[in-house]
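Q: Joint fold for the lines below.
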Amino acid sequence: MTQPVSPPRDSADKVPSTNEAPAWRSLVFRADVRTLSLLGVLAALIVIGGITKPDEFLDTRNLQLVLTQASVIGVVTVGMTFVITSGGIDLSVGAIVALASVWATTVATQEYGFAGILFTAVLVGVGCGLVNGLLIAYGGMVPFIATLAMLASARGLALQITDGRTQIVSVDGILDLGERDSYVLGVPPLVMVFAVVTIIGWLVLNRTTFGRRTVAVGGNAEAARLAGIDVRRQRLYLYLLSGLCCGIAAFLLIILSGSGQNTNGNLYELDAIAAAIIGGTLLSGGRGTITGSVLGVLIFTTITNIFALNNLQSDVQQIAKGAIIVAAVLVQRRTASTT
Amino acid sequence: MAPQPPLLSMSGITKSFPGVRALDGVDLEVQAGEVHCLLGQNGAGKSTLIKVLAGAHQPDTGAIRWRGEDVTLRSPIAAMRLGIATIYQELDLVEHLSVAENVHLGHEPTAAGFVVRGRAARASTAALLKRLGHPEIEPARLVGELSAAQQQIVSMARALSHDVRLIVMDEPSAALDPDEVDNLFRIVGDLTAEGVAVVYISHRLEEIRRIGDRVTVLKDGRAVAVGLPAKSTPTREVVALMTGRNVEYVFPDRPASAPGGTPVLEVEGLAREGEFEALDLRVRPGEIVGLAGLVGSGRSEILETIYGARKPTAGQVRVDGHALRPGSVRAAVRAGLGLAPEERKAQALLMLESVTRNVSVSSMSRFSRAGWIDRGAERGAARSATRELSLRPDNPDVPVRTLSGGNQQKAVLARWLLRGCRVLLLDEPTRGVDVGARAELYAVVRRLADEGLAVLLVSSEVPEVLGLADRVLVLREGRVVHTAPARDLDEHRVLDLVMEGSPAS
Amino acid sequence: MPEPTYPSPFTSRRGLLLGTAAVSAGTLLAGCTSNDSSDDEPAANDQPAAEDKPGKQVTIGFAGPQADHGWLNAINDNAKNRAKKYSDVTLEITEGSNDTAQQIGQIETLINKKVDVLVVLPADGKALTQVGLKAMRAGIPVVNLDRIFNTPQAYRCWIGGDNYGMGLNAGHYIGEKLKGKSGARVIELAGLDNLELTKQRTQGFDDALKNYPNIRKVARQAAEFTVESGQAKMAQLLQAQSKFDALWNHDDDQGVGALRAIEQAGRDDFLMVGGAGALSAFQAIKRDDGVLKATVLYPPTMAASAIDLARALGQAKGVSGLAEYEIPASLTLYSAVVDKENIDQYMSTGFK
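A: Joint structure:
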C-alpha cells in the first residue's frame, strides 16, 4: 500500500556502479522517514491537544489515560503485525478477546482467583489461535475465511457463555491492578504489560530467526519454502502468537473494565489492521514494523482522547478518524517518494 | 519529391527515475513496413523506451513525431488511438476472462452503447486468430487454460484488434519453441507486407539477423548505434556495441581428467505422472551434468522433484547413498541439496530484503543461539560468500532488488555456498542475465564444481548446456533419449535428438 | 363479543399501563400494593392483566431479537416466566435473531402454525412491518413490543418504553437534586449514537434541564451500550471535566464500565443517575456507597405485560382496571426513577 513507486525493472536492474551507495541509502532513509512522519503526525496531534485543552490534555493523568486506553488494542496490534507481515490476516482478534474475557470471568473461573482468570484468558486465546493456525497452515484454508469463521464462532460461543449478561469480576487482585494505587512510579500496570509486549515483539521480529522467517514467508512464500523454511509450521506459530496476544489483551481488558462481556473487543480487527497499515506494515506481507504499529495505535488513541476532551460527538469523531487515516498514509507516501 | 517522413521519429528522449537516469537523449526512427530491432543489455533502457512509446511513461525531455507531426503520448490510450500497440514481455492478460473478452478488453463491440455483443466479439477474435495461424484457439476458452505460447498469440491478437500501424514486441520469442518462433516470424512478415512497422526486442542475435531490417543499439540509456543494417552488421560488432567489450559466450575449461569418485546424487526411476518418467542419473562431486530439451520436456519439473518441491509418483533420490523423504524440501536441504530456480524473483529472492538476508536465509541456525541472531556474524559470513563469487556491489546491505540479474543469481548461489551445500541444481542459470555477465557466471559454476560441488544444470539454450556441462542428458517429452559426454555432441546433433528422439548416428 | 371486565377494583400497580411522560420531576408512581416477590428471577408484578380465572386456551407466538444484551435477555425471561404462570397459555418462542430476513422467516412459521396471538419484538421495526401486516391480515392479532412497526395497521396493540420520557425524568431528577446550586454542571454519557432512541433520550434530558436555569450541560460523549466503551468514554469524560455535579448515563450495562472508570479515577464528587434498571445498578443504589444514586427505568417487564395483553386478546377480554371493553391500541410505559427510597419495590425486576 505504501510501497514507494519503484523505477521500472529495466532501469533499476543496473544502477551505474558510481551511484550504488545512494540507491540503498535512500531505501534505509525511507524506512526512517516513514517512522519520522508518524512521529510528526503524533507531534501535530499533541500540539492540537495542547492548544485546544492545555490543562486537561497536557497532564500526567491524561498521559496515563491515553497509554492505558492504548494498551489493550496495542497488544492485539503487535500480534496482528506479525500475521500481516507474514502475508496473512487475522479477522478473529476481537472475537477471541471477547471469548477469552468471558470465559475467564465466569463464576466457575473466578473461584480460582487471579491465576485462574489469567490462565484461562491466555489459554483460550492460544487455543483459538491454534485452531486458526491449523486450519490455515495444514487445512489449506485462506486466512481471511478461516479467521472469519473463527470470528463468527468465537462471538457465538461468547454469547452462549454469557447469555448476553455482563459478568462482573469480584476478585480483588484483578480489580486492584486497574486502580491508581497499583501504579509503579506513575506507570499503570496495563501500560507496563503493553511496553513489555512491544519490546519483546520488536526483538522477536527484528533480532530472531522467527522474525526472519516471518518476513521471508510474507515476502515470498514460495522462495521461503524453496530456501528450506517450514512455511506451514511458521504460519501455525504466527496465528498462535496472535491468539496469545488476544489472550493477554483480554486479561488487560478484564482488569480495565472489571468485567467480561460478549460484546468486548468490538471491531478490534479493523482497528488493529488500520494501525498496522498506517504504521508501515505492508498489507501484502514482507515488511513489518512494530514501532510503526505502536505509533499507529497511539495516534488513534490520541485522536479519540483529543476529541473527547473537546466534547466532539461520535459522528465528527468518525469522519475525522477516516480523514486522518487517509492523510497519514498520503503524508507517508509523499515523504517516501520525494527522498 | 520530398522523401516520405518516417512513421515514427523519437529524438532526444530523456527520462530519469529517482537515482537513475534511464534514458539519456535517445533517438529512434522507424519506417512504415520495416522490422526495427532494439538491442541492449538489461538496464540499457529498452523497457523504458518502449514504455515511453506506449504512453506509459512521460519523457522528461525530447520530441516524438508521428507521421511527420509532433505528438504527445499522454496515456496508453492516446498511443493506442494513434495506432501504436505494445506486446509486453510479461503478458498482461486477464486469466479469468475468455480469449475473446481479453482481445476486446476496453473496446468491446456493443449494442446500444453498453450491451456487449459476445457473438460478434468471438467471431472477430476467431478471424484474428486464424490470421495469426492459430485457428485452434477457441475464442470462448479462458485465457488461464492456455499455454504460454498460446497466450502470446492472444496478446498479439489483442494488439491487432485495433487499427494498428506500429507494433512493439518485447522479447516475443522468449517463451516459444522453435516451430512457434517460425510462426511468429511468418506473422511479422505478413504484418510488414501490409505496411505495419514492427519494433522487435530480443536478446537472440540470430533472430534479429533473420527478420530484422535495421538495428538500434542502446547502452546505459544512450543510443550507441542508430539504424544499422541488420543483416550485414557483423555479430561481433553488435556485441561489442552492446557490452562495450568484445565478448561472446566464453566457457571455462573443463578439468583435464573426468571427475571420479562415488556419485553424491543418485536418482533412480524418478517419475511424475504426465511430466517425466523413469529418470536415472548420477552426479559425482566436481561434475556438471546438463539436461537439454525443449520447453515442455519436463526439465524444470525434474529439478524441482529431485529437490522435493514436487512429489514424485515413483522413484527415489539418494544423497551419499541415503534416500531422501520424497516431497520434502527440508529433507533435501538438510541432505545438502540447493536449488537456483528458473524464476529467481518469484521462487528464490526476497525482493524487499538486503543481500545479507537473502544469502543467510537458509543458514540462519548457524548465526543464532536459541533463535537469537548474531547479526555481525551473519553479515560477515554473507559478505565472505558474496565476495567469493565477486558479487557486485561489494556491499551486503543493499536491497537485492537493486542488483542486476547476474548478481541476483550470484546471491542465490551464495546462499547455497554459505549453507555448505554439496549438490547444486541450476535451472536456467543465465535467464535474464546480460551477455557480458554470463561468462563470469559460467566461470563461477565451474569453479564451484572444481571445489567439489556436484552440479545438475538445466537450460533451454543448447550452447550453454554443451559449453558448461561435462555430461549431457537429452530429454524429449519427459524421457531421456540420449546420454553422452558434452564434447561428443554439437548443437545440431542435440536439436536432432530433441526433435526426432533417436540418435542420428 | 369481548367480555366486559369492569367494574373491577383498581388494586394493582397496573398504573404502569396508564402512564406516559410529562409527569413532574421526582414524582414516583407509588404502588397500591406492595410487591413482596422474593423470586430471584427478574419478575414483573404478579398481578395479571386480565381476569385471573383460567379461560380458553391461548397459543402465543413470541419472536424477539438475539439476547446479546442484559436487557434483551431480561425481555425473554419476563415473557417466559409470565407465560408459565398461566395454565391457559402455551408459549411458542423462537430462537432470537438480529437478522431481519431470519426473523421474518420465524414469524411466518408462527403464522403458518396458526398461533392465536403474536408478540413481536423486531430486530428492526421498520423492516418487519410487512410481516406484521401479513399476520394481521391472517387474522392473528399482533402485540408489537417496544420497537414500533411503520404503521398501526401492522399491530393490534403496541407496548413499549418511553425513551424521551427516560431522558426527561432523569433530567428532572437531577434538576431537583441540584436545586439551589448555582452554576451547576452536568454531563451525559449517551448510548449508541446510531440509534434513534439515543437521540430521543438526549432530547428529553435536554428539555428537562431547560427548566433549571442554574444547570448547564457541559459535556456529552456517546458509548456503545458495552462495558468496554462505557469505561473508555467515561475515563475520557472524567479527564475532560475536572469538576461537575451530576452525570446521567443512558444504560446500566455500559454503566458497569463507567463506574469502573470513576473508581479508577478516584472520583466521588458528583451524583450519577443510570438508565434501564439493571440488577447491579439497583444493588449499588441500595448499598448507597458510591456515586450512583438512582436509575431511570426502561422496564423489561414490558414483555410480561405483552404476554398479559396477548392472552387477553386471545380470550377477548379487556384490561382490568379500565373502563374500556377493548385492549388499548397503544401503551407507553412510564420511565420511573428508582432511588434509595423506592428501591426495594423494584429490586426483583432488575436484570442481570
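Q: Anything notable?
A: The first helix of chain A runs from residue 9 to 13. The radius of gyration of chain A is 21 Å.
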